[in-house]
């Protein structure tokens, strides 16, 4: 399993980068048996849980010097906090380049020939979690970025989707065939948006969530288009609905 994304699925790549976005200290990891690892949460990420369900090891961070040799066969995590679809948000395309490095390592140091490598990559799952930072750390920060002046919400969603499509086609070209693309959750309900004063204290910021609906609908349509590629299997993960159900029915989830 190969993981691409932002802080929602990072496992420690930023520990090895010159970045202020790090989480290798408490209270991060307080409920994780390995302690603070660079995961931006108290315990497991959803891809950790997915790996467990599939009977796979947790894919290690690409930047970890120990991620080499036979360890690559269990997959690799390229996710980096603050990454976005747009390079001005946070260079996602570097993750594609890093995956290309892994493909080269599989061919040269692990000794996978052409047919074996193609079969391995074709059976592997790629999980991509992007888009949140392009909104909360770009479009919704007009004092720093001009994107909200240059693009209407539908135009910005289209810009993101066009860039995302090119990156996905690049990964397909490198041999991956099975993709899970996570949509964006209800960012209008996260603390920094609710604290913005753009909605009552007990309410989510509706216009932000409406923007995300446009992006998520477009991503779902993009999945249908990409599935026309030979041998491709793309799936859309409805993060918005999943998180929305937790917010609307907390008792079902232990009153979180």
UniProtKB/TrEMBL annotation:
Q: Which UniProt keywords apply?
A: Hydrolase, Lipid degradation, Lipid metabolism, Secreted, Signal
| MF GO annotations | hydrolase activity, acting on ester bonds
Q: Single Gene Ontology BP term?
A: lipid catabolic process
**Pfam families, from UniProt?**
Lipase_GDSL
Q: Which GO terms describe its cellular component?
A: extracellular region
Its primary localisation, in coarse terms, equals secreted
Q: Where in or outside the cell is it found? A: Secreted
Under InterPro entries, the record lists: GDSL, GDSL_esterase/lipase, SGNH_hydro_sf, SGNH_plant_lipase-like
Query: Can you tell me which family this protein belongs to?
Result: Belongs to the 'GDSL' lipolytic enzyme family.
PANTHER family to which the protein is assigned, alphabetical: GDSL ESTERASE_LIPASE (PTHR45650:SF8), GDSL-LIKE LIPASE/ACYLHYDROLASE-RELATED (PTHR45650)
Q: What is this protein called?
A: GDSL esterase/lipase
Q: Which organism is it from?
A: Linum tenue
Upper classification of the organism: Eukaryota, Viridiplantae, Streptophyta, Embryophyta, Tracheophyta
């Amino acid at each position: 399993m190969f993981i691409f994304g932002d802080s929602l699925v990072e496992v420690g790549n930023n520990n090895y980068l010159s970045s202020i976005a790090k989480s290798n200290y408490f209270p991060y990891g307080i409920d994780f048996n390995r302690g603070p690892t660079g995961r931006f949460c108290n315990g497991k990420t959803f891809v950790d849980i997915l790996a467990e369900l599939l009977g796979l090891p947790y894919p290690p961070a690409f930047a970890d010097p120990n991620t080499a040799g036979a360890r690559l066969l269990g997959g690799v995590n390229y996710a980096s906090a603050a990454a976005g679809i747009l390079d001005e948000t946070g260079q996602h395309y570097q993750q594609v380049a890093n995956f290309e490095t892994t493909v080269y390592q599989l061919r040269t140091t692990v000794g996978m020939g052409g047919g074996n490598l193609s079969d391995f990559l074709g059976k592997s799952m790629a999980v991509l979690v992007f888009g949140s930072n392009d909104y909360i750390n770009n479009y919704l920060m007009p004092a720093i970025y001009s994107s909200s002046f240059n693009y209407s919400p539908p135009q910005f969603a289209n810009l993101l989707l066009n860039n995302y499509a090119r990156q996905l086609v690049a990964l397909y070209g490198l041999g991956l065939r099975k993709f899970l693309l996570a949509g964006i959750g209800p960012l209008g309900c996260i603390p920094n948006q609710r604290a913005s004063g753009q909605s009552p204290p007990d309410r989510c910021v509706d216009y932000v969530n409406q923007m995300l609906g446009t992006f998520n609908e477009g991503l779902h349509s993009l999945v249908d288009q990409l599935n026309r590629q030979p041998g491709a299997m793309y799936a859309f993960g409805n993060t918005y609905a999943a998180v929305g159900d937790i917010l609307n029915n907390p008792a079902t989830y232990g009153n979180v």
